[in-house]
Specification:
Layout lengths: L3 E10 L2 E11 L4 E5 L6 H8 L7 E6 L2 E2 L4 H4 L2 E4 L11 H12 L4 H10 L13 H14 L4 E5 L7 H17 L3 E6 L2 H4 L5 E6 L2 E7 H6 L1 E7 H8 L4 E7 L2 E7 L13 E4 L2 H13 L3
Helix pairs in contact: 4-5
Keywords: ATP-binding, Nucleotide-binding
Protein name: Multidrug ABC transporter ATP-binding protein
InterPro entries: AAA+_ATPase (IPR003593), ABC_transporter-like_ATP-bd (IPR003439), P-loop_NTPase (IPR027417)
Length: 289
Amino acid sequence: MKGIEVKQLQKKFHKQVVLEPTSFQLEPRKIYGLLGRNGAGKSTILNSLTNRILVSGGEVLVDGQSAFDNDQALRKMYLMSEKNLYPDSTKLIKLFHLTELFYGDFDYQQAYDLAADFELDLQQRFGKLSTGYRSIFKLIIALCVPAEYILFDEPTLGLDANHRELFYRALADNYLKRPRTFLIATHLIGEVASLLEQVLIVDHGKLLLDGQVESVLARSHLITGPTRQAAEYVAGLNVIGQEKLGKISSYYIYDDLDDSRPLPDTVSIEQLDLQQLFINLTNRRKDGK
């Protein structure tokens, strides 16, 4: 099977479970979002996929091959993370060449173009870069390696608004020119939502949701109205959040709405965006509901 297949992946540190048994698939040529709060388990998943940490159970298959201790499978994936794995004394242009030694066929022209767009001097040494420009350099490498599966762990760390927007445009352009699988792990949902085709939401080491963005949002609703009428309408539905202001109540719903369910004139229905859905799903789990 083509793609990345994750089967019952789990991780424990000592006796603490940091990732419950988790299964999902990443299909070729799609852009995924791995959404979660800080400490939710996003980095654990990405580091487990790329064999950077030992897992406690489960397996990861890349195009049908195990990713564990398998250089052929690992070369198909590239993980950009906040960890700085490059020597401080090495010039950036030299790091491009070192990257090519492992991954092959590095896209130098695109790298030069992106460096110019970001105003990054490739003759600098890595250790002289600011936090933001270290992120920019690693983003450039991620977009220019020939790997089929590009994984980003909080890719915009330290970037200002202009540079974040430039990165999102560069990623979209890269995907159009050379479709491949991108997995973006982030807590900045509003900024990446328009890029995503598929979404995974993780919280407290548990995968809460996995689905196509369009299908997920079709089940995400805000029901608002006088408290009694609104409560009667949402009875039996999956309520993931609630707000009340005076005599008016709002219910956040993740469920299919039955067309046969009568809607009072005083009750309104709106569709949630991805960020609203994320906030209410993770708030509910945080509150233990």
